[in-house]
Amino acid sequence: MSIKIARLAVLLACGAVALAGCGKSDQPAASKGQVVARVGEEVVTIQDLENEFRWANVTPDKQKEPEIVKRVLGDLVVRKHLLRQAMAAKLDREPGVLLDLLRSREQILENAYLQRTAAAKAPGKADIDRYIANNPAKFAGRRLLSVEQIAFPIGPSTQSFVEANKNAKSLDEIDQKLTAAGIPHGRQMGALNSGDLPPEFYGLIEAKKADDVFFVRAGQNGVFFKVKGEEPRPLEGDAAANLARQLMRADAVKAELGIARYSANLEAKYEGEYANIMQPADGKKN
């Protein structure tokens, strides 16, 4: 077992002892309302359930709705059940699983640090007003675009199709070529929100000609589309301010990550063949 894996095993063992101790000392209080379910010897507390609501982005006003509680609590119980099975099979002692647990721990702490650092630089009202004014397509000038679209799965075999048809003049042409190539696809009407599009791309759409066909990636799919119409959907008042805060928070997290990348690159010393692989193109650390 490597030093890194051994270190994680110790961390997990200490954590398990601490949790076990807490569980025993809190049992009387838990029996008076803190426990919402038991799965064998595993206990599901109200704190566990509230944390699941947080992960699922369930707002406080929805946390008492029976259908939502049933879904979230049911999933949590299944996870506790599978945890018992995994622990009984001693999967927590396998090197690969230990490495995955360490990676998850690092990712959670990384994200927590970025979120906290970004939150410490929360924007004021003037900053929010300025952001809203500088991004009209997301707020006062937001528009809903009605589009006809053709979607298909993106992969190595379809990427060449996208490149060969990026200058297509009609969806009919795209439809025919996809059919001829044996690529599964679907054609239907849809909608795009101008606030969800990158400013540069929305600028291209605004400057469109009548026969222009556009292409975007949407998850695992590629989408060719043509704008058929649009209507104003302004976002103003408190709703605009709340969205601006969310977007500015996301931008702040990205900025903090950029600073961290720069600092990490200055601090890192790569060994062996990785020193050459990680060398910047200009031969200087940046």
Description of the structure:
The chain is α+β, with helices and mostly antiparallel strands. It has three domains: 3-111, no CATH class; 121-142 and 236-286, no CATH class; 143-232, Chitinase A, domain 3 (Roll). The protein contains eleven helices and six strands. The chain has helices at residues 3-25, 27-34, 46-55, 66-88, 95-119, 125-134, 156-164, 171-181, 199-206, 237-267, 273-277, and strands at residues 35-39, 42-45, 143-153, 186-193, 214-218, 221-232. The strands form two sheets. The protein has a four-stranded antiparallel beta sheet, covered by helices on one side. Strand 1 and strand 2 form a beta hairpin. Helix 1 packs across helix 5 (95-119), helix 5 packs across helix 10 and helix 6 (125-134) crosses helix 10. The two termini are 35 Å apart. Mean pLDDT is 87; it is low at 1-5 and 14-29. Keywords: Signal. This is Peptidyl-prolyl cis-trans isomerase, EpsD family.
DSSP, total strands = 6
Structurally, how many domains make up the residues? 3
Give the SSE order as H and E letters.
HHEEHHHHEHHEHEEHH
- Main sheet specs: 4 strands, antiparallel
| Helix and strand composition category | alpha+beta
The low-confidence parts are 1-5, 14-29
Average pLDDT reading: 87
Overall 3D form:
extended
Beta strand %: 15-25%
How many distinct helices?
11
Summary keywords:
6 strands, Peptidyl-prolyl cis-trans isomerase, EpsD family, 3 domains, two-stranded antiparallel sheet, disordered N terminus, 11 helices, Chitinase A, domain 3, four-stranded antiparallel sheet, 16% strand, alpha+beta, 286 residues
